[in-house]
Amino acid sequence: MQRCLELALLGIGDVAPNPMVGCVIVHEGIIIGEGFHQKYGGPHAEVNAIRSVSNAELLAQSTLYVSLEPCAHFGKTPPCSDLIIENRIPNVVIGTIDPFAKVAGKGIERMQNSGITVEVGVLEKECRNLNRRFFTFHEKKRPYILLKWAQTLDGFIDTDRTEIQHTTWITNALSKRLVHKQRSEESAILIGTNTAEYDNPALTVREWTGNQPIRLVIDRTGRLNPDLHLFDDKAPTWIFTSLRKQETGNRKYITLDFNQDILPQILSELYDRNILSVVVEGGSILLNSFLQDNLWDEAFVYTGNQFFGKGVSAPEISGKTIGFEKLDDCKLHVIRNV
Fold first, then answer.
1. Whole-Å CA distances, 220 to 5, 258, 270
2. What is the pTM of this model?
3. What is residue 39's DSSP assignment?
4. Do 254 and 238 contact (CB within 8 A), yes or no?
5. Would you call 227 helix, strand, or coil by DSSP?
6. Which DSSP symbol is given to 2?
7. Per-residue pLDDT tens listing for the chain (338 residues)
8. Could you write out the DSSP letters of every residue in 181-215?
9. DSSP secondary structure string for all residues of 135-176
10. Exposed site from 5, 8, 292, 299, fewest CB < 10 Å?
């Protein structure tokens, strides 16, 4: 099962809104096949593992290990539980049950009804953690929310923009590359109006090789300059606004009721559009809104080797530190909401 987890991780950034899944087939203590879910819409891990076995006759005396319950429904591909049954694999070991309503125990039931011995719960905690975005999406009916900001040694995330009207660089080039790597692994990235206006970010994956997340920006009144990098149509961009506007180029306009709390509305819209995860890279107002509503799962806090003396205070956050990394003269703390 540990090998299943290692394989599953190879699909990061490429399979959402599907989960990352790894599969290993063992015959008399020897691995004879393995595979992982490589691309959304492509063959599942079980299919790739079964196809990799050179002598298919051995399947009838083998055990299949898989990190997530085999599916039992027709989606982009046929049910994996049926494929396991067809190949007469007698034993299946599963890391954790699939929370998706169309699966949720049905794959296990189908295999057991066909005489297959099924064991569930091997490294379950690790399997759930690997796909925490997927589980959050299906169990809480919202995307997995990651907050990200950079702060100075004296606790500021920005200068006073009434005095200084230019981008303020807090961290270093290594930190920037890591941010771009993270972007490539998530479904979407969200900023507010002020961040778009003052910083004019591109929100692209420029310093890493990977997928481009959907760019999300809040622009209630349509005041943002159309010449901003966000509107260059180089990547899909969704604008949350109070206005009704037609899609144009790579831009989609999503109307919200700004007389009500917009965060639940944004998360509901993203859930309905199968957005599995979102990185919030906004300024103080947007970040604190998510923190105050307790709408966050992880936070990535970069601390640069800078002092501002005054400015916009960094958000105050409490949670469990689950990771720490030194990036030359910068530090990264990863905090999980508990």
1. 42, 7, 17
2. 0.93
3. S
4. yes
5. coil
6. H
7. 999 999 999 999 999 999 999 999 999 999 999 999 999 999 999 999 999 999 999 999 999 999 999 998 776 677 899 999 999 999 999 999 998 867 778 999 999 999 999 999 999 999 999 999 999 999 999 999 999 999 999 999 998 766 555 557 899 999 999 999 999 999 999 999 999 999 999 999 988 988 999 999 999 999 999 999 999 999 999 999 999 998 888 999 999 999 999 999 999 999 999 999 999 998 999 999 999 999 999 999 999 999 999 999 999 999 999 999 999 999 999 999 99
8. HHHHHSSEEEE-HHHHHHH-------SS-SPPPEE
9. HHHHHHSS-EEEEEEEE-TTSEEE--TTT--S----S-HHHH
10. 292
Name the catalytic one among 46, 185, 281, 298: 46
User: The tokens 């299949």 sit on which residue?
Assistant: 64
Task: Give the residue carrying structure tokens 């080039």.
Answer: 173
Q: Known catalytic residue: 46?
A: yes
